[in-house]
Amino acid sequence: MRGSTCRIDGSGEALVVRRVHVGERFEVLELEASGRRLALKIAAEHQQGMPPYRATRTVGTVSTIWSMISRAGILASSSWGALQLVDHGGRPGSDAREGTSQPGEVHETTTVTAEMLLTEEAQRIRDTEPHWNHQVLDLARCHLPDRAPALGLLMPWHPGVPLGTLPQRTQRRLLPRMMLSLWDALAAGLHGDLHDANVIVAPTEDRFALIDPGAMLLLPPPPSPGPTSDILTFVCSPTMYPLLPPYAITRPLAEGDTLHDHWHSFVRSLSWDDIAVPLDASGDSIHILPSRGRYLVQVPRTRGEPHPADLLAVGILYYRALTGAHPFFDARFTEPAWLSVMAWDSVISGDEPGRERVARPVVAPSERTLDDGRGSVLPEEEALALALLDLEVPSRDRLLSLSAAAAQALARADG
């Protein structure tokens, strides 16, 4: 493909410089057009199945609800005994109800889903463009040699490197300086898949761009005289969202809740099946999707603060920069806590791993051995990391105080 020509409907032709990334659902190409470097994200040529996480709400009557958050390939049970097998690994999915899946439909279904996810991602980038230093140049059908036309998301190519490729000591120095800008960027809109490859640091280290937000689709059920299901399909990195999924309904940070409180707030929201995605960039409301007897709720999002799941991801980034270790995953906790959490009316099951994990304190950074061998973690750095990981950052001003103290302490230590 390198050196070939890509034709983009409405935008002309560009030279393919290289294939940057190939994932299960999408691939990213570096292009060049009229001397300008561009990035193109398209559905992968060989789809590996549907995105790996789904939250399902099945309604049989007004009072009977079953919610489940599952990995692709896991059977999702409804209160009426119907089974849905989520497509996985390119194998045809099926449903206990006849006529829902036919041989040969898998590639078409996964491609359509990937394009819907890409469209949703494009809208979120547009909504947050000035805050994420990122933009959509075009969303159009792309024509590449030896493959079918596919929807592509055309974006600027950002000079710089992913945060995670920088030396650990450099990350440790930069992150406290980036904290206020990260707060503002994430307050502008849910990212949902924040990790060290999605933060591009400029060569001058004076700015960064947030790219590749986690995509989500919330689809209403088709008309049916029997049980109906709303399905939320979402993509995120479980290592960065180990306790709160990116669509979690929790109380505002400004109310001063800890991580323990946010976890239980999320679980309680499932008991009434309040699955909803806080994606509206204005912060006022999101879609209402009706189903038989119940409704997905409108979720107001407090202006001026990030979603708790995104802020927790920031804390994980900083903790790993300080220690090289993950703050939550260990021998006892190996899967995201929200995986397979279920609710039947007000009865919750599958939440035991999350309850156990939030009850245990995070190992203080100063108690871990640093990978870079350049001194111990400073008290101010530890205070910032632990506050982020317990979501005890109720305001931008509080984050300013903590991050400024950490940055100044490290500068003094470095002389």
Automatic annotation (TrEMBL):
Species in which this protein is naturally found: Chondromyces crocatus
Region: Disordered; residue ranges are: 87-108
Please name the SUPFAM superfamilies in this protein's record.
Answer: Protein kinase-like (PK-like)
Q: Where is the composition biased (Basic and acidic residues)?
A: 88-98
Tell me what this protein is called: Protein kinase domain-containing protein
Extent of Polar residues compositional bias: 99-108
